[in-house]
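Most newcomers find our protein records easier to grasp once they have seen one. To make this concrete, we reproduce a full record directly below:

…
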Amino acid sequence: MRIIALLLVWVVSTYAGQFDKVKITPDMSYIYVYHKGKAVKVHRIQNTKNKLTGEYARTYRPNQDIQPIKMHKDIQTIGEVELLHFMKNKVNKKKGLLVDLRPKRAYKSESIPSAVNIPSKTKNSKAKVEKILKVLGAKRLADGSLDTKRVMDVAFYCNGLWCDKSSEFIKTFLELGYPADKMLYYRGGFQMWKILGFTTVTNR
């Protein structure tokens, strides 16, 4: 019995430490989030020699400027740790939404777990924007104003530090009356998510 107990302790400790080589924070190795109804373990790549390849390894984008850390005085900019807490405490509990503003093709290929896709060009369609606002809990009143008492928290991201899709979409929502304190701007976007070796999912 003692041998079995020791074996169980060894197995549990080995599994628990499986993602401890490359941690997220000193106290966090991974979290679970739900993506399309399935639990996904989000962690960093444990290979300490891993290198980024592909589109997000590029350091230059034609006609794209680096975005400021503060895109609007009333909008909170967040990093990866804050985004993970948002995914765990808001998205998992259906109190918040993580929105990927990249084109549908890019989202289908790869995205942050738990994210839903709303291509940034959607902001140019009044009808589609109204549907999105309704899904988020906003109500259009008879006088044309927007009732936002029960809207969800939303975190937006796009390609990365050089991508203006998030800031432009957030500005559109602000103009429509969506509360600033209900929106978060993940400035690092998909490029920083990839650089830090976080788990991604496909959406085909």
User: Anything to note?
Assistant: Residues 8 and 154 are 42 Å apart (CA to CA). The chain has one domain: 49-195. The chain has six helices and nine strands. The radius of gyration is 19 Å.
